[in-house]
Amino acid sequence: MKVAPTAIADVCVIEPRVFEDERGFFFESYNRRALQAAGIDAAFVQDNHSRSRRGVLRGLHYQIEHAQGKLVRVIEGEVYDVAVDLRRRSPTFGRHVGVNLSAANRRMLYIPPGFAHGFLVVSDAAEFLYKTTDYWYPEHERTLLWRDPALGIAWPDGIEPLLAPKDAAGAPLASADVYD
Q: Could you report the per-residue pLDDT of 127-136, keeping only the tens digit for each?
């Protein structure tokens, strides 16, 4: 696996080593030893799988207690994936990283605890898989407003987002619960 930091060093793009031939392909989508060697020492406790159609925007979600680290990837289609640093004491507080993840590029993104996360489906449909470092606690879930100008996220043009009510009502960064 090749692990590369992004503009926010704690968020990493992971590119697996893919073995392809006329029969198809094989790659390790998770190898704890390889990730530990790259400085990612996360113990995952839950796997999640979603399918969404073009234009669905999920996020920007986080849990104010029981913060979740995530290892995310796409197995069908393509998404624009975003992580926003909500760690108040971080030098990158309020900044974000955006990465295209697709079944074709096979990239994964590691997002440590302390970040809000979301994605926009840019293909006809997308299947999204992710591992989390803590369980889902709905009472601690929060949503950061995806279109908050303070975040400066350049979502892909030409796609009108389809949002769940909780995502449409997310809090702007200025009034959001954040991590100390």
A: 999 999 999 9
